């Protein structure tokens, strides 16, 4: 491949990109850094710095406790309603609170209580381990009642719908799946899967952590019961930012939160000694909202709404299609394999490739002394490098330069200069 010609083509694609203006909305002080890890931690929006400065200096510093009535008390609901516009939910169906794991705990137990005569919980071998740990911990509380069954994968990349149908049955109380698989990027057909689960009398809970902000989602249209998601990936809310939960309005009255917390009480400032749950989705709140972290989420959500999720998905697919083509053309014969679905309607916004030296290649990619720029992706055991594409701040030129650097690293065996010892975070 003639990289000079193709880099020029990439620049032309970037010039015609309707989303290119949003790149300047994010902090990117290092011009020699290509960041392809937004599927783990999104970039910092410039507006977030100003928002947090205002919260700290004005709302907290000057107004102090007065800000609870003026700004803070309904922030979890306000930002939840903005996220709702990205996931096809109605006002009053989404809250920002706690962590993804805590929200899973709340909604799993709420679903099991609402569907009491069934004993099976279904997930799959692709689900994020933390999701499975929460299920396993709940089963440990009811060791003789529930069992977990996982849907298998024949190719390690995707899930065949026949395998879904073979596992979900009339004894299934709840199905919990990640909309986009965290390793391969496999994308479920949400509507088809939800319909089948309901036909068997099961409730369904979707983890949207690797899809919200990257692909169009319509929870109401699909008839979804429950959903959770994190806000620090494509929603760019910052490290450890609070997660969100969704409960279909038709279920809010019928479902109970297992954690009876102060902010979930019907009238928290009456300080009743006996708990009465809120009649709205607020019943799934627990303790005092994390105001600083909550405030950091809002700027990026507003950028996403402004950009439009359909346009974001279109560009994300363009970036990933280009990456797949270049991997096939330029990395052929170097021991790489694409381990994500090749059909664009069956994958999210990240592409995974495998190599027996994946970890050391990932470390070499970060080294700016190689090709005078750094590429940040991430490694997943045992041999996977994940590349996350964010339409808001990634460019087509970056895709060309990334593959060029990978090829150089492997062709020159430069990865051999790096230790196989794992960092704490990979």
Distance from first to last alpha carbon: 31 Å
CATH architecture grouping of the largest domain = 3-Layer(aba) Sandwich
Q: What is the CATH topology classification name of the largest domain?
A: Aspartate Aminotransferase, domain 2
CATH superfamily of the largest domain: Type I PLP-dependent aspartate aminotransferase-like (Major domain)
Give me the strand/helix succession.
Answer: HEHHHEHEHEHEHEHEEHHHEEHEEEH
Binned, the helix content reads 25-40%
Query: Whole-number radius of gyration?
Result: 22 Å
> Which shape, going by the Cα principal axes?
globular
| Structural domain tally | 2
Average pLDDT: 95
**CATH class bucket of the largest domain:** Alpha Beta
Index terms:
426 residues; alpha/beta; Aspartate Aminotransferase, domain 1; Aspartate Aminotransferase, domain 2; 2 domains; seven-stranded mixed beta sheet; four-stranded antiparallel beta sheet; 13 strands; globular
Q: Can you offer a commentary on this structure?
A:
The protein is α/β, with parallel strands linked by helices and 426 residues long. Strand 3, helix 6 (129-141) and strand 4 form a beta-alpha-beta unit. The protein folds into 2 domains: 3-44 and 308-417, Alpha-Beta Complex (Aspartate Aminotransferase, domain 1); 73-306, Aspartate Aminotransferase, domain 2 (3-Layer(aba) Sandwich), CATH 3.40.640.10. It starts with a helix and ends in a 15-residue tail after the last helix. The strands form 3 sheets. A 7-stranded mixed beta sheet has the order 2-8-7-6-5-3-4, sandwiched between helices. The mean pLDDT is 95. 39% of the residues lie in helices and 13% in strands. The chain is globular and about 70 Å long. Helix 4 runs parallel beside helix 11.
């Amino acid at each position: 491949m003639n990289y000079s010609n193709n880099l020029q083509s990439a620049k032309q694609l970037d010039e015609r990109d309707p989303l290119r203006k949003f790149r300047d909305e994010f902090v990117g002080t290092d011009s020699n850094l290509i960041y392809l890890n937004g599927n783990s931690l999104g970039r910092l929006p410039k507006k977030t710095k100003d928002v947090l400065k205002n919260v700290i200096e004005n709302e907290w510093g000057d107004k102090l406790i007065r800000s609870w009535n003026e700004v803070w008390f309904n922030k979890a609901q306000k930002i939840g309603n903005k996220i709702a516009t990205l996931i096809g939910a109605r006002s009053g169906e989404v809250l920002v609170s706690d962590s993804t794991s805590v929200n899973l705990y709340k909604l799993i137990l709420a679903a099991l209580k609402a569907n009491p005569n069934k004993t099976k919980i279904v997930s799959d071998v692709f689900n994020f381990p933390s999701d499975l740990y929460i299920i396993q911990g709940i089963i440990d509380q009811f060791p003789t009642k529930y069992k977990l069954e996982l849907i298998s994968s024949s190719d390690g990349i995707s899930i065949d719908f026949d395998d879904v149908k073979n596992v979900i049955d009339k004894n299934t109380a709840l199905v919990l799946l990640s909309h986009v698989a965290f390793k391969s990027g496999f994308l479920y057909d949400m509507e088809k899967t939800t319909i089948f689960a309901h036909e068997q009398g099961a409730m369904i809970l979707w983890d949207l952590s690797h899809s919200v902000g990257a692909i169009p989602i319509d929870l109401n249209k699909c008839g979804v019961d429950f959903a959770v998601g994190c806000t620090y990936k494509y929603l760019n809310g910052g490290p450890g930012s609070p997660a969100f939960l969704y409960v279909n309005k038709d279920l809010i009255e019928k479902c109970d939160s297992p954690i009876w917390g102060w902010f979930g009480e019907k009238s928290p400032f009456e300080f009743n000694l006996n708990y009465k749950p809120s009649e709205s989705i607020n019943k799934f709140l627990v303790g005092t909202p994390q105001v600083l972290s909550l405030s950091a989420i809002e700027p990026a959500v507003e950028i996403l709404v402004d950009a439009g999720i359909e346009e974001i998905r279109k560009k994300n697919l363009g970036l990933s299609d280009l990456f797949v083509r270049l991997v096939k053309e330029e990395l052929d014969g170097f021991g790489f394999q694409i381990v994500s679905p090749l059909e664009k309607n069956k994958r999210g916004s990240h592409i995974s490739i495998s190599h027996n030296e994946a970890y050391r290649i990932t470390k070499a990619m970060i080294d700016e002394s190689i090709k005078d720029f750094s590429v940040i992706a991430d490694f997943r055991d045992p041999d996977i490098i994940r590349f996350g594409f964010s339409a808001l701040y990634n460019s087509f030129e970056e895709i060309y330069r990334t593959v060029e650097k990978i090829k150089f690293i492997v062709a020159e065996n430069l990865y051999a200069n790096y230790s196989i010892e794992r960092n704490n975070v990979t």
